[in-house]
Amino acid sequence: MALKEQIAEDMKAAMRAKDVSRLEAIRMLRAAIQRREVDERVALDDAGVLSVIEKLVRQGQESIAQFQAAGRAELVAKEEAALAVFAAYRPEPLAPEALSALIEEALQRTGAQSVRDMGKVMADLKPKLQGRADMATVSARIKERLA
Questions:
Q1: pLDDT tens digit string along 53-111?
Q2: What pLDDT is attached to residue 71?
Q3: Maximum CA extent, the chain
């Protein structure tokens, strides 16, 4: 089943169960997916849906940090609940060892020698790592390796 179809089915299940917080998070996700489809005039595949989920997760993490700084525990709890819903649609994260191995393979494939070649390495890795690793962390590890 495609990811968009799974999200639609989960929304129906949340409606039937009257799970308000889960339903709210799924509706937010579906709205973000539809907004991107309309903006780009394409139907998103699973990779596109994953990128939307990743963006929402990053925004949620930033919101949590700001809410914690402001002492808004109820909003932190709401954002964390939404992140838990989004986590169900993300693939299993890569282990640090597997990530290191993929980075080494990409470095060899692209022939990267310096930080200038980082774009090639990131372009090679992004499709394989989407949703499975934080790309900011991957970028930092590649910089460290190439420095």
A1: 999 999 999 999 999 999 999 999 999 999 999 999 998 888 889 999 999 999 999 99
A2: 95
A3: 55
How many other CB atoms are there within 10 angstroms of residue 129's CB atom?
21
130 Ramachandran zone, left/alpha/beta (phi>0; psi -120 to 50): beta
Q: How far apart are CA 76 and CA 86, in angstroms?
A: 15
C-alpha to C-alpha distance for 5 and 95, rounded to whole angstroms: 28
Amino acid at 19: D
**What is d(CA 22, CA 82) in angstroms, rounded to the nearest whole number?**
7
pTM of the model: 0.80
Enumerate domains of the chain plus CATH numbers: 3-87 (1.10.1510.10), 96-146 (1.10.10.410)
CA 90 to chain CA centroid, nearest Å: 7
Percentage helix, strand, coil for the chain under 3-state DSSP, each rounded to 5:
80, 0, 20
Q: With 0-12 CB in 10 A as exposed, 13-18 as middle and 19+ as buried, what is 110?
A: middle
Please list the alpha-helical segments (H only) found in 18-95: 20-40, 46-70, 73-87
